[in-house]
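Following up on my earlier thread - several people asked me to post the actual chain instead of describing it. Fair enough. Here it is, all 391 residues.
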Amino acid sequence: MISSLELFCGTGGLALGLQQAGFHHCALIEWDRCSCENINANIAEGYETIADWNVMQNDVREVDFRGSFQNIDIVSGGPPCQPFSLGGKHGAYNDVRDMFPQAVRAVRELHPVAFVFENVKGLLRQSFRPYFEYILLQLQYPFVEKATNMGWEEHKKMLEEVDASSTCVPDYRVKYQLVNAADYGVPQQRHRVVIVGFRKDIEAEWEFPNPTHSKGALLYSKWVSGAYWAKHHLSKPEVPEKEKAAVSRIMKEPPKELPWQTVRDAIFDLPKPGSQEANEVPNHEFRAGAKTYIGHSGSTLDEPSKTIKAGAHGVPGGENMVVLDDGSQRYYTVRESARIQTFPDEYKFYGSWTESMRQIGNAVPVRLARIIGDSVMRVLREGRKNTDDEK
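Reply from S.P.:
Thanks for posting it. Predicted structure:
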């Protein structure tokens, strides 16, 4: 059994995906009360998949990892993204919500065989680059600790000197990549930085999973084969002018990947919100008031959704809207948003629309988490096999 500890678990998107990949969560830590209550409500309502989850509502800064947990194989989590979000205040290391130091502390105190962390693409912004390099160095050398009175720049210089030494081997082999969830079958354009590390004694090599889906394949399915429209029992429209050049290219060499999944793919079988049938679907209530204004417009049905947002930064609902076939628009229901984030239909949300959307918007898409988890699991099993063979 591969045991894991989830930090900053939110409402459980990353945890659900990693569990589907075979990881056993010893505990999930989250300071936000509403997120913890939502997970516990699903447990109480009998969602068997997470029946044994131990949800700890706690500030991770107060957790004694050494004293509370033993034999943790993997540490995972999504440190709060607000310090690095493109829409936030961009405080980075000056933001009290920067929890990367706590993620590093967990790795240092638990010494897991691997870790998986996720964050927004704003982490790669040029202005944050020195600090991001510092995060990576800390994860490579978590046991080279920062003194109490030492600033992060000074600590970074120390780590760089250690890394340059020919006698030092990093404690963890760390890789990161900016991934688009749509490239892995999530019906949403969602770009996130994923950081994965393996302890130096794990011999098997690991690479980020290859994308399984592509925009080119969706274009082919729409405008060459017509399979997309046939699947949805729709007449094939004329090729949009803006797509004609790309369609000409893919006609010569059809893409090998599967088509990007669209909003229509994700929600086509749900009843119309506000109808009698919709009342039978949990979290599928109609919400009025959707409006388009500069910088905030709905997602089209026949493309992957725009990024589901947490509704922060003074923008109620963010762009969590859909443009229907008749040109009208409405807010996504909570269930539609959950599907776009690839949560199972059995997983419910018990707060208000605003609170549920906040939790869903902050989550890691379950499918993306499972794909990454599958790849990490294969390496851990291979590494253990190599170790056993040497005995």
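The longest strand covers residues 172-180. That should answer part of your original question.
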